[in-house]
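INFO  loader      accepted 1 record
INFO  loader      residues=134
INFO  predictor   begin
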Amino acid sequence: MTTQTQEVQKQESQPVETAERTRPRRTFSPRTDVFETQDAIVVVADMPGVEEKSLDIILEKNVLTLRGKAGFEAPKNYSLVYNEYADGDYERSFVLSDGVDRDEIDAVVKNGVLRLRLPKTKQAAARKIPVKAG
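INFO  predictor   done
INFO  writer      dumping tokens
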């Protein structure tokens, strides 16, 4: 194998950064479940440590972006011995179809779990078609 071929293989095996970081904090993609009901799509995202005041939900064109900042403050006179959560930000984006009523989206965050309800438009909502014998 030539030296040039070996160099190309080394370059291919190294991870490629797909986005530039502009903040020194870590950014996490929250684990998310998406459910569909007859009249809405429900998104449930785990964002531990994120509170209402540190959460931004932005809808621009057809992209819904979730951004949350999580932090931890140790109680007075305590020192951290062990932790499983790292400080950082959460960010995740979803492309919405035309079947979502953008004016009726609502969001609730409780105990670090964000719940979004994306109602379907009247045209996109599932409905049962009655069948007549005849």
